[in-house]
Amino acid sequence: MLFVSSVKIEAQIATLNLQIATPNLKPQTEQKDTSKSLQSLFKFGQFSGSARYYFMATDNKGSLSNFYANAFGMGIGYESAKIKGFQAGLSGYFIDNLYSSDFTKLDSSTKQGSRYELAQFNVLNPATKTMMSRLEEVYLKYTYKKSFIKFGKQDFKSPFINPQDGRMRPTMVEGAILDFNEIQKLKITSAWLHGIAPRGTIDWFSIKETIGLFGTGTNPDGSKSPSPNQISTKGIFLLAATYSFTSNNKIQLLNQYVENVFNTSLAQAEGSIAINAHRNILYGVQYIEQHAANNGGNANQTLAYLPKGSLARTFGGHLGIEWPKKWQAFINYNRITKDGRFLMPREWGREPFFTYMPRERNEGCGDVQAINLVANKTFANSRLKIEYSYGHYYLPNIKNIALNKYGMPSYFQTNLDIRCQFKGYFKGIDAQFLYAYKGKIGNTYNQDKSIINRVNMSSYNLVLNFHF
């Protein structure tokens, strides 16, 4: 099946965070404030590094083109010791295309290229074959008791802006981030962001340059959505508060304002309730509301990110049970109402819906019904985890452009995710295998362009990683 067996996977040492979150190039231990001079500030800092090998392949239906990528990368980071609460950090990463598809070659019938594999390298230059590098972190950090403020290029995770680390490198941000933890059970995060290095790129961009960088889709009236630099904004302001009622139950309120473009608010509660000594009920509820700000980014409405006066609402939840020996099972549901399309630039992160499954998104749509089932089991002292998920996603008809920005048909999806963390001599090495299949439910009107890389396709992923 496919060409997977014919691709030589060169066994390079590589690295993976077991949660496929941010591959951390920063030290894993807290630095004590023992530095007494500028010299000792750097002398007693810590170096850290990581390496990653990632094989990815897409098997499309019938005669439609298939794609594959073999990528290897290494990075190193440094964080200084503290002096009167201050620290500085720096990190960078190199990526090499070992052996991959020719990403300049498009499918002959649809004129579509690789959707997933190209993002292992640089989506803005498909012809690149040489080693690529990216400066990832340059920051100054001040820590006071349990809180800190951090300026510069750095990693960041929130419901709408996050590493979305399903490729070689994660999304990074530039700006100022305050993390306040001086009130018991309450965490407050505030951020002003003016730059982003999206996943799948090797450069840094202003906020307005990132909107539409990965593809534009259509406006509700059928015109092409704006390309980068056609939106006017000074940046993103975010304020979030998380209150933990107990160690297992919390509520989060968040507001994200993209100046002159849109405002998005989120309320979410999740946690677990003990049934008895051996079983827990797991729950979560979520509500999101989005409004256009001013003219949606441009006075010319055909160039606005979303029309003036736009409104979108989405809500969802999940319910699960946790058994002894680390078994979990969930049912998840999400609804995007008919009020309008829920929009969030894909360059910034993945959507926070409970029904999210790797390799597809519902962002860009309105009038969506999604439901999925998830079961996972953790084995061998938490070193091996296997998860299976299956879901149905009912989207508007692909011809309903007012509610379907990217023309994605309704689909079903099944994922198998296996993760392993090694110990002993191989300590520091993690591995992941992810298989995803997406099948067609909605009408594609016999258009191959609505099928390739979207439905009736399989995605294979093998990741090997090493932290040092």
Keywords:
globular; 18-stranded antiparallel barrel; Porin; 2 helices; mainly beta; 468 residues
Could you walk me through the main structural features you see in this protein, from its secondary elements to its overall organization?
The protein is mainly beta and 468 residues long. The chain has one domain (4-467): Porin (Beta Barrel), CATH 2.40.160.10. Helices cover 2% and strands 46% of the residues. The longest helix is centred in the N-terminal third of the chain and has 6 residues, at 38-43. 41% of the residues are buried. The model is unreliable at 1-28 (pLDDT under 50).
Provide a count of the helices: 2
Structural class: mainly beta
The CATH architecture can be named as: Beta Barrel
- Let me know the CATH homologous superfamily: Porin
Offer a quick outline of the entry:
By secondary structure, this protein is an all-beta fold.
Q: Which SSEs are present, and which pair or pack?
A:
Blueprint: H1 38-43, E1 46-60, E2 67-79, E3 86-97, E4 132-144, E5 147-154, E6 172-183, E7 186-197, E8 205-206, H2 207-210, E9 236-246, E10 249-258, E11 262-274, E12 280-292, E13 311-323, E14 327-336, E15 368-379, E16 384-394, E17 411-421, E18 429-440, E19 457-467
Antiparallel strand pairs: 1-2, 1-19, 2-3, 3-4, 4-5, 5-6, 6-7, 7-8, 7-9, 9-10, 10-11, 11-12, 12-13, 13-14, 14-15, 15-16, 16-17, 17-18, 18-19
